[in-house]
Every structure is written in structure tokens, then in C-alpha cells.
């Protein structure tokens, strides 16, 4: 392990003596994962596109309203294609004081792309967002939470502030010198709610059960001093009963005085300032040739 030797003995220390941190993020995918998946086989089918477009049309506004009420500033990761198609939604997100970050152009899986193509998704994604909200430093969350060492190098070269796609710790760390604000599947709404017509799997999970699970993870992370980083998708969590359950859970969490609520950018900035050279991982660990 190339990480810092004292890694297992340490508790991550948060600002103001807080016990742990919490952040709310939105992966604002809309139609893009479908368009990327079907890029070589265009079809006249519209059902999944409509299902996903619910997010940018309605779901996002419900989530933004809930966040305003709870006084939570979110980190919203937006594919460039979504910014081009729904500029008014991006404006509403920015107007709410939320952080905006990159999420590819068409939700491309970086693993399937050449280095040049990955670079294009970063540049195009950034340009699309900046056309609406102006130039600014941004963080990155990779589509489908897949990442490659080449992508990390490109992010650094383009001045990207941090990545938020990996799960190697449950507090911030460094990956090849780039701050990592870690996600985890347990705290992603998609694994519980993603359901399409003709799908043979189980029905979507009861929202109350999902928020119970999240609440348990919140308590566990708090005990160990980690980061509770929740990720929702507006086409999934923007639905009625899910918004209600989410609001109920978050309003309880907001009452906890031991939690530092912050955006991913603020967490990355804190890590960069206070943890230079600590909790560092090199991707060479995973390269075998
Ligand atoms: Zn996504």
C-alpha cells in the first residue's frame, strides 16, 4: 500500500471540532446515460428518454426547493449536453447558491475512450457549463463513477479542483495528487430506484427503507468520523414519495450539531489545505504491466 503509513491509526479531523462531515450531491444525468449507451444503435423508442427527462423538467426543481427550505447547498455534477439542452435548470441551480461540477459531455464512460476523447469530454463539458454561468474552477465526478489514471492526469492538467468518483476511504484522500471526495454505492439513490419498463429485476425500494439505510450509514460514518456524501438523481429522487422521505431524513440530520455540512468543493479545499501529503494513494498500485 502506497498510502501513508499511519493511515489506520488516524481519525480524520474536521473543521471546528466537528465529528464528521455531510454533503448532498446531485448527478444531473437526465437523458445522457441512455444517449451514450445507444450511441451506435439509435432507436425510435422514447419511453426511457421521457422517464429520464422528468429529471431536468420537474425533478430538479423539486429537489432545489427542498434544499432551499433545508438551507443545504448541494454539489451538482452536470453533463455538458444537459447544460446545452436545459440552460434554465443550470441557471436555477447556480441561483440557489449550489456548486456546479463536471460530469462528462454525454455521460461517457471514460474506460471506453482514448485519452484524446476523454480530454474532449472535459473541455466540452466545461465550456457548455461556462457558457451559462461563466468561467470558474470546477470539480469533477466521472460518469458511472468509473475512472482511469489517464483521466486523473487530464483533470490535473485542466486545473480541475478535485475528483468525486472513488471509494478508497470514507473521508477525503489524494489519488495521484488530486483531492478525492469519495462517494459510495450505498449512498446512491440509483441502486434502489432505477427501474425501466420490461426490466425483470425487483421493483423500486420503498423510499422509507432507503432513508432508513442512509440514516444508519450516517450514524456509522459519524461514529468513525468520515464523510456522509449522498448522491441523488433528479429523474429518480424527484418523484413524490422519495422527495418526502428525503426531506424528512435530511431535516433530522440538519439538527445534528456535530456534523459539518459543506459542498464537495469546500471539502476538497479543506483537505488540500490540511492534509498535504497524507492519505495519498497512487494508481500505480493498480497497474500490473
Ligand atoms: Zn451520472
Q: Could you state the order of secondary-structure elements as H and E?
A: EHHEHHEHHEEHHEHHEHE
pLDDT < 50 runs, ≥5 residues: 1-6
Strand content: 5-15%
Q: What's the average pLDDT?
A: 95
Q: Would you tell me the structural class of the helices and strands?
A: alpha/beta
Level-2 CATH architecture: Alpha-Beta Barrel
Percent range of helical residues = 40-55%
Span between termini: 17 Å
Q: Radius of gyration, rounded?
A: 18 Å
Count of DSSP-assigned helices: 11
Task: Give the domain tally.
Answer: 1
Pfam family, one: Polysacc_deac_1
Protein name: Polysaccharide deacetylase
GO molecular function, one term: hydrolase activity, acting on carbon-nitrogen (but not peptide) bonds
Characterization of the model:
It is a single chain. The protein has 289 residues and is of the alpha/beta class. The protein has a single domain (19-278), classed as TIM Barrel, CATH 3.20.20.370. It contains eleven helices and eight strands. The chain has helices at residues 32-37, 47-70, 80-85, 87-95, 115-133, 149-157, 190-193, 207-224, 234-237, 240-254, 264-274; strands spanning 20-27, 75-78, 99-102, 173-175, 178-180, 227-232, 259-261, 280-281. Helix 2 packs parallel to helix 10, helix 5 crosses helix 6 (149-157) and helix 8 runs parallel beside helix 10. It is globular, with a radius of gyration of 18 Å. Mean pLDDT is 95; it is low at 1-6. Zinc ion (ZN) is lined by residues 27, 29, 103, 107, 143.
Amino acid at each position: 500500500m502506497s498510502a501513508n503509513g499511519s493511515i489506520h491509526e488516524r481519525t480524520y479531523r474536521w473543521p471546528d471540532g466537528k465529528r464528521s462531515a455531510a454533503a448532498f450531491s446531485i448527478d444531473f444525468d437526465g437523458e445522457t446515460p441512455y444517449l451514450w449507451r445507444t450511441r451506435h444503435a439509435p432507436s425510435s423508442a422514447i419511453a426511457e428518454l421521457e422517464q429520464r427527462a422528468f429529471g431536468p423538467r420537474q425533478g430538479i426543481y423539486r429537489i432545489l426547493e427542498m434544499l432551499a427550505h433545508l438551507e443545504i447547498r448541494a454539489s451538482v455534477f452536470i453533463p455538458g449536453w444537459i447544460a446545452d439542452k436545459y440552460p434554465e435548470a443550470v441557471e436555477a441551480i447556480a441561483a440557489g447558491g449550489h456548486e456546479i461540477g463536471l460530469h462528462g459531455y454525454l455521460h461517457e464512460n471514460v474506460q471506453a475512450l482514448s485519452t484524446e476523447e476523454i480530454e474532449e469530454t472535459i473541455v466540452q463539458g466545461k465550456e457548455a457549463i461556462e457558457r451559462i454561468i461563466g468561467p470558474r474552477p470546477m470539480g469533477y465526478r466521472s460518469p458511472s463513477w468509473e475512472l482511469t489514471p489517464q483521466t486523473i492526469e487530464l483533470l490535473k492538467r485542466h486545473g480541475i479542483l478535485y475528483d468525486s468518483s472513488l471509494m478508497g476511504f470514507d473521508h477525503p484522500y489524494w489519488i495521484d495528487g488530486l483531492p478525492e471526495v469519495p462517494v459510495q454505492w450505498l449512498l446512491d439513490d440509483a441502486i434502489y430506484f432505477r427501474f425501466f419498463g420490461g426490466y425483470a429485476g425487483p421493483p423500486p425500494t420503498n423510499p422509507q427503507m432507503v432513508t432508513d439505510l442512509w440514516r444508519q450509514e450516517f450514524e456509522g460514518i459519524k461514529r468513525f468520523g468520515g464523510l456522509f456524501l449522498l448522491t441523488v438523481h433528479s429523474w429518480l429522487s424527484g418523484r413524490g414519495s422519495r422527495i418526502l422521505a428525503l426531506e424528512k431524513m435530511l431535516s433530522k440530520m440538519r439538527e445534528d450539531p456535530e456534523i459539518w455540512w459543506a459542498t464537495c468543493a469546500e471539502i476538497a479545499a479543506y483537505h488540500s489545505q490540511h492534509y498535504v501529503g497524507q492519505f495519498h494513494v497512487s494508481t500505480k498500485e493498480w497497474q500490473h504491466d
